[in-house]
User: Which sequence fits this backbone?
């Protein structure tokens, strides 16, 4: 099993902490960066080269969707999973980005998401 | 500037305006022009009265010049009084009057015009007098007061110069008073209402309808005044129609229309106002003019007040709705970004812990839960503190003052409950300001005033501390400003060595 490099982006410090622990507790996943805004996520992705980005849809500034589009445009092999606590997922083009509920995030779910969302080559 | 003076921002504004008015140097060419114009208008309106035979040398059904003088002096300044004097001297009929009597009469007329114009100018400071019933009452009383003065001085000086017999004195005084009163009631409201022209008049259906109504008022007044039977009440529905459709301006035109045709008809044809003796018919005509003018003016003012109130309520309601919407968004955002994220994080941690719980994980989880509880409590406190729900703003302020270790004096409190978002914002400002005082002042005292004049809730907190409050320093003051401005209110802080005062104005409506 290869190592999956993960970048997390959420403006809530509390949830970022939980995501941090989740990634560390998931076998085969390592954390390569944390961001508290869409803009910070774009620049962190450019330097940290993550395989998987877990990004909150609702953030101030360009927001999760805007950041996801820029990340994928810069590096198409990166897989972005939009995470949301409410019905914000309806606004996401689900052909391009996977959407996950914050309430369901657990190590097993993270592995499932990675398996189903990553681009098949 | 002490802290307390900030409690009434703008309180001294009117006096500044008055001082400026007196300081302005007199523009001589303008002044001469004004005097000449007034003299000409005065003389011209007197000639119209003589020509149409509703004015005689000592008595008039309607004495228009006095109305012209009062209106002119009220609108353009009392300093133009020589115009009224000149006009009156020119208009006197010296073939009938002795010089002494004429001088006395002219003096009375001038005094009358200046007194009435002085009162009307005072009334105008508070806004257009004809748009409120108290203003109309003031204008009517001002005209009556000025007129009474002249109606005493004029006939007495004529009597003293033997132009009038003692027997005729009471009748002349009465006719004089009523004639001048009618003149002011016709001209002064017309001038006040039309001194500022409407922004544009286009020939629309409204203008055509107004012109037709005025014509109808003229025709009906003429017919009614020219018939043997008393039919003059027929004019009143038309006067009301005019006021309902065209407000104060329409009302003043309607008065002119009915008065003009009534007096012309009365002086030429026999009507309900000319049953027997001439003075009796004059009295009836004058009584009609006064009743028609005063009723129309009061009706128009009442209607204007109601319409202004409805407009204001609409604005207040729109503000309240948008304030409620802002508040709703704030709560939604606070809930989403705060407690909801904490609880989600907690859920994620518990899921992790469920595999292999450690005491460290449980401690973190409990900590998160505690923070979520704190955030929810803060949120509900910020939204609507329990003390506010139970006691209202006034009660909450009193309770705050009782619990304070620094003496708090309350100058004014709103007598009734206001809408929850305004009360909450005001209470929030109050608690923050008092907390700051406790933190920084310790000795000294605080004065609180909360007043409500629809649609504004005004709140001021002034302390006698050593000042030094700085909004830029990122204190709680910035939060207060944001909270007040989110409600479309105004917030200001003034801090000096003599203390700090905070003033907030919040749109509010009675709950």
Assistant:
């Amino acid at each position: 099993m290869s190592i999956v490099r993960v970048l997390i982006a959420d403006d809530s410090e509390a949830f970022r902490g939980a995501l941090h622990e989740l990634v560390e507790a998931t076998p085969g996943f390592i954390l390569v960066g944390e961001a508290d805004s869409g803009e910070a996520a774009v620049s962190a992705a450019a330097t940290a080269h993550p395989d998987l980005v877990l990004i909150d849809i609702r953030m101030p500034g360009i927001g999760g969707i805007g950041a996801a589009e820029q990340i994928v445009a810069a590096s198409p092999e990166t897989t972005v999973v939009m995470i949301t606590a409410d019905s914000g997922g309806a606004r996401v083009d689900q052909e391009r980005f996977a959407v996950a509920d914050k309430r369901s995030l657990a190590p097993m779910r993270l592995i499932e998401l990675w398996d189903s969302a990553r681009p098949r080559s | 500037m002490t802290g307390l003076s900030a409690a009434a921002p703008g309180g001294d504004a009117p006096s500044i305006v008055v001082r400026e008015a007196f300081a302005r140097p007199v523009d001589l060419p303008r002044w001469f022009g004004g005097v000449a114009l007034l003299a000409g208008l005065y003389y011209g309106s007197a000639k119209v009265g003589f020509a149409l035979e509703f004015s005689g040398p000592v008595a008039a059904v309607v004495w228009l010049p006095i109305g012209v003088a009062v209106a002119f002096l009220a609108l353009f300044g009392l300093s133009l009084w020589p115009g009224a004097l000149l006009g009156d001297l020119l208009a006197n009929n010296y073939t009938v009057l002795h010089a002494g009597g004429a001088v006395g009469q002219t003096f009375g007329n001038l005094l009358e015009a200046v007194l009435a114009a002085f009162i009307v100018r005072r009334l105008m400071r508070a806004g257009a007098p004809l748009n409120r019933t108290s203003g109309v009452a003031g204008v009517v009383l001002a005209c009556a007061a000025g007129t009474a003065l002249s109606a005493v001085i004029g006939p007495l000086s004529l009597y003293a110069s033997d132009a009038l017999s003692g027997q005729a004195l009471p009748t002349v005084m009465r006719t004089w008073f009523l004639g001048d009163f009618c003149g002011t009631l016709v001209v002064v409201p017309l001038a006040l209402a039309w001194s500022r022209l409407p922004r544009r008049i286009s020939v629309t259906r409204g203008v055509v309808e107004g012109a037709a109504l005025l014509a109808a008022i003229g025709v009906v007044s003429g017919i009614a005044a020219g018939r043997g039977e008393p039919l003059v009440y027929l004019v009143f529905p038309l006067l009301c129609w005019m006021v309902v459709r065209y407000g104060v301006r329409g009302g003043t035109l309607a008065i002119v229309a009915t008065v003009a045709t009534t007096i012309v008809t009365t002086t030429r044809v026999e009507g309900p106002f000319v049953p027997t003796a001439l003075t009796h018919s004059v009295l009836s005509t004058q009584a009609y003019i006064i009743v028609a003018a005063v009723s129309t003016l009061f009706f128009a003012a009442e209607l204007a007040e109601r319409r202004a109130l409805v407009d204001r309520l609409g604005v207040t309601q729109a503000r309240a709705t948008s304030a409620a919407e802002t508040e709703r968004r704030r709560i939604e955002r606070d809930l989403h970004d705060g407690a909801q994220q904490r609880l989600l994080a907690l859920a994620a941690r518990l899921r992790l812990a469920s595999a292999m719980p450690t005491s460290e994980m449980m401690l973190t989880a409990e900590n998160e839960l505690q923070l979520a509880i704190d955030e929810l409590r803060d949120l509900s406190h910020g939204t609507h503190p329990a003390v506010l729900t139970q006691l209202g703003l006034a009660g909450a302020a009193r309770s705050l003052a009782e619990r304070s270790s620094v003496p708090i004096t309350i100058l004014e409190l709103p007598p009734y409950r206001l809408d929850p978002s305004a009360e909450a914002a005001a209470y929030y400002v109050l608690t923050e300001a008092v907390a700051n005082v406790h933190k920084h002042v310790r000795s000294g005292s605080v004065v609180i005033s909360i007043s409500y004049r629809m649609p504004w809730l005004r709140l001021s907190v002034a302390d006698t501390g050593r000042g030094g409050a700085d909004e830029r320093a990122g204190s709680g003051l910035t939060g207060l400003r944001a909270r007040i401005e989110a409600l479309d209110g105004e917030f200001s802080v003034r801090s000096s060595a003599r203390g700090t005062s905070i003033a907030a104005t919040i749109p509010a409506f009675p709950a």
About this structure: The interface with chain B takes residues 10-12, 14-15, 17-19, 21-22, 25, 58, 85-86, 102-103, 105-107 of chain A (CB under 8 Å). DSSP finds four helices and five strands in chain A. The helical segments of chain A are 13-25, 38-48, 63-74, 107-117. The CA atoms of residues 51 and 78 of chain A lie 5 Å apart.
